[in-house]
From TrEMBL:
GO terms for cellular component: cytoplasm. The keyword Zinc does not apply. Belongs to the class-I pyridoxal-phosphate-dependent aminotransferase family. This is Methionine aminotransferase. Pfam families: Aminotran_1_2. Keywords: Aminotransferase, Pyridoxal phosphate, Transferase. The keyword Transferase applies. Residues 24-372 form the Aminotransferase class I/classII large domain. One of its GO terms (molecular function) is pyridoxal phosphate binding. Its cofactor is pyridoxal 5'-phosphate.
Length: 375
């Protein structure tokens, strides 16, 4: 008997596979296709010949923990203790999975905001807890009234994803004030904040939970070096949480992976001394603007994109097909792969919207746009 009867192969796998089979330009699954910074690849080549191939301590390579504390201080002016409040994980996915498994009990309720990224629900269900999905408003702002009426004494956690995949929306000051007011009423509820795109925001500044004193004592904040350093395949991320939570999370982590890939940890640790992480915003802002300009004469209607490397577009002017069928036809007839947004909703709400990943070199964006403008 299946423990996850409704879980199927992830849409990212399905679309990337189909893109490869049809030799299409893959703007579906989110990953960069431009070269990684040579300074980072040089560090890895050198490290391969050094004595760095055995387990690191369970929580992470100590110099990396210290550098993350420095990064959180410089980005958000928050003091965290490297030894006790940070855990290095095999990507944000493992940070999320481990946290949920460690902290949820049967029948706990967890609020998720739809459209939502796909990795939250499975660990909730495996913990025999209940996902409570609340739709965002039409402009992708959180519907705080609906969230408040879903909250109860059974609510163990609310998950936010900011900047938001797939919509590119970011939370503003008023959203945080409403969240804080709500959580004040429920002192036992926790917050999991998925901030993997924290360094990819544009006109509006990212507000991190690290900067919210009313939240940090009950919050697990999740980051990913895969996103920030264009190395999604390295699967390296981290979480920051208060001692009483991370203590429980580490109990699961030590038996799930024990520790994370040593070379990647050491390489990231050295690279953090060389790189200006704040330059990532302007790299992606240029790509967003370029991609949007290239699509200006297409029949797609482009939605606002405040952060992440995803552009959502409406094809309502082009076709009445559902978004999954439209994406499949986009691959087979036009040679471009995208992600149907309905797959981020509990009930597959079809809004005629699809998501393109613009973390690509200019040549790829130009060729994709050329194909998309003939539709
Ligand atoms: N959360 C969101 C919102 C994401 O888009 C991703 C993307 N891959 C992840 C978590 C997982 O990150 P990682 O690849 O570091 O596991
Ligand atoms: N986060 C990536 C995306 O949104 C997908 C990663 C994966 O395939 N698990 O496209």
């Amino acid at each position: 008997m299946s423990k996850l009867p409704n879980v199927t192969t992830s849409i990212f796998t399905v679309m990337s596979k189909m893109a490869a089979e049809h030799n299409a330009i893959n703007l579906s699954q989110g990953f960069p296709n431009f070269p990684v910074d040579e300074r980072l690849t040089e560090i890895v080549s050198r490290l391969a010949h050094e004595d760095v191939h055995q387990y690191t301590p369970m929580s992470g390579y100590p110099p990396l923990l210290t550098k993350i504390a420095t990064l959180v201080k410089s980005s958000y002016n928050r003091n965290i203790l490297p030894e006790t409040q940070i855990l290095i994980t095999a990507g944000a996915t493992q940070a999320i999975f481990t946290s949920l498994l460690a902290l949820l009990k049967p029948n706990d309720e967890v609020i998720i905001l739809d459209p939502s990224y796909d990795c939250y629900e499975a660990p909730i269900l495996l913990s025999q807890a209940k996902p409570m999905r609340v739709s965002l408003n039409d402009d992708y702002t959180p519907n705080w009234n609906a969230i408040a009426s879903t909250f109860s004494e059974k609510t163990k956690m609310i998950i936010i994803n900011n900047p938001h995949n797939p919509t590119g929306k970011i939370l503003n000051e008023s959203d945080f004030e409403k969240l804080e007011l709500l959580l004040e009423k429920y002192p036992n509820a926790l917050l999991l904040s998925d901030e993997v795109y924290e360094y990819i925001t544009f006109e509006q500044k990212h507000i991190s939970t690290h900067t919210r004193p009313k939240l940090i004592d009950r919050c697990i904040t999740i980051s990913s070096f895969g996103k920030s350093f264009h190395v999604t395949g390295w699967k390296i991320g981290y979480l920051v949480a208060p001692d009483y939570l991370i203590k429980e999370i580490k109990k699961v982590h030590q038996f799930l992976v024990f520790s994370v890939n040593s070379i990647c940890q050491i390489a990231v640790s050295e690279y953090l001394d060389l790189v200006n992480i704040n330059e990532i915003n302007s790299l992606y802002q240029k790509k967003r603007d370029y991609f949007r300009t290239l699509l200006k004469n297409s029949r797609f209607k482009l939605m606002p994109c405040e952060g992440t490397y995803f552009q959502v577009a409406s094809y309502a002017n082009i076709s009445k097909e559902n978004d999954v069928d439209f994406c499949k036809r986009l691959i087979t007839e036009y040679g471009v792969a995208a992600i149907p947004i309905s797959t981020f909703y509990e009930n597959g709400k079809d809004l005629k919207l699809i998501r393109f990943c613009f973390a690509k070199d200019n040549q790829t964006l130009e060729e994709a746009a050329r194909r998309l403008t003939v539709i």
